[in-house]
Amino acid sequence: MKLLFLTQILDREDGILGFVPRWIEGLAQHCESVRVVALAVGDDLDLPTNVDAVEIGRKGRVRRFMRYHTALGDAFDQGYDTVLAHMVPRYALLAATPARRRGAGLYLWYTHKGVDDRLRRAERLVRKIFTASEESLRLETPKRVVTGHGIDVAHFAPLAAERRTRSADAIELLGAGRLTPAKDPESVLDALAQLVADGIDARLTWAGGGLAAGDDDYADGIRARVDELGLGERVRWLGHVPYPQMPDLYRAADVLVNSSHTGSVDKVVLEAMACGVAPVTCNESFERVFASLPAAGAAHRFEKHDARSLAAAVRGLTVDRGPSVASSDQLREVVVRDHEVDTLMARLVREMEPARRSRA
Fold it and tell me: How far apart are CA 205 and CA 117, in angstroms?
């Protein structure tokens, strides 16, 4: 297979898509060659010798369009026979006509609650849509293939046993993700205030900033809420954090707080679990993920928009820790078993291989 991978950013330092180079390494193990077409390509990627990259650039809509079509044409001229569009249905739409003319298989990876016209049009044109969970693709289609996430469990790993002892007295909470209403940081702040009111020394670190228009205004309101609650010295905002730095943030936390309302399996929870850090989430899709944990992971869940429920869950994972709390090893095992990156990459190639062979 000669795979053409279409994505937004190929950069190990990117705070959101920093995992993509590791995906490419995994795909390259099973492909004759992999070419990545991205808007931006970082430095010092150190990718396998059968991988190359084409940078489209961000400036000029017409310029991007022309460069994209040139990159697609060049790849098909050089025998690339399979296309995987990553997260952006528009990329699948751009590739659809030249892929059909050249007999190349076209696929989409998509994990988002949003369903728009572009996704619907892409669904009609691709052979399969890969997604991490049933809830990660809200478009009903027989083309959906649920694969699990692809977490680099070597990158996201626990501290060595001799370094696990923590000296800090305060409970360290970590939130990770964009500051948006869908992530519900208000409930996290209210839960922190409840813990402090109950006499528990707790602090919150939040990694992630805004991306879309309006995100900054919302973030300003959240920071104002911190002051209203008198939590100024207990909350630390980090903004965007480069992907290589995230494991240290997870390992410094006692609890990963995930208040997202997207309803899909949020990979930050899986990354924390791979690091052996206890998560607590209101996301209903994790019922299946947690099924093999003690008490089916009940200690790791709380009710949406319910700060008291979240505060109680944090207490149950820390000061009132009981037998229903999963151990670090149990948490990590779920990710290794069901969401490991090389397993996912091999699965994706297998899923795309039959169509390629049928054209031979």
Answer: 37
Give alpha helix (H) positions in the chain.
20-28, 61-77, 89-102, 117-125, 185-197, 215-228, 246-251, 267-274, 286-289, 307-317, 328-338, 341-359
Residue at 48 is within a domain = yes
The pLDDT of residue 162 is 44
Would 156 be classed as within a structural domain?
no
* Number of domains within the chain: 2
| Radius of gyration of the chain measured on its C-alpha atoms | 21
User: Does any domain span residue 155?
Assistant: no
The SS3 of residue 335 is helix
- 320 with 353, same domain: the answer is no
| Residue 128: domain span | 2-150+340-359
Q: Give the chain's residues under pLDDT 50.
A: 162-163, 360
DSSP three-state, residue 233: coil
Residue 60 sits at φ, ψ, to 5 deg, of 75, 110
Please check whether residue 56 is in contact with residue 39, taking contact to mean a CB–CB distance below 8 angstroms: yes
* Burial zone of 271 (CB within 10 Å; 0-12 exposed, 13-18 middle, 19+ buried): buried
Q: What is the CATH number of the domain that holds 104?
A: 3.40.50.2000
| DSSP-H helix ranges across 45-88 | 61-77
Q: How far apart are CA 175 and CA 258, in angstroms?
A: 6
- Are 81 and 204 contained in the same domain? no
Mean pLDDT of the chain: 94
> CB burial class (10 A; 0-12, 13-18, 19+) of residue 194?
buried
Statement to judge: residues 113 and 262 lie in one domain: no
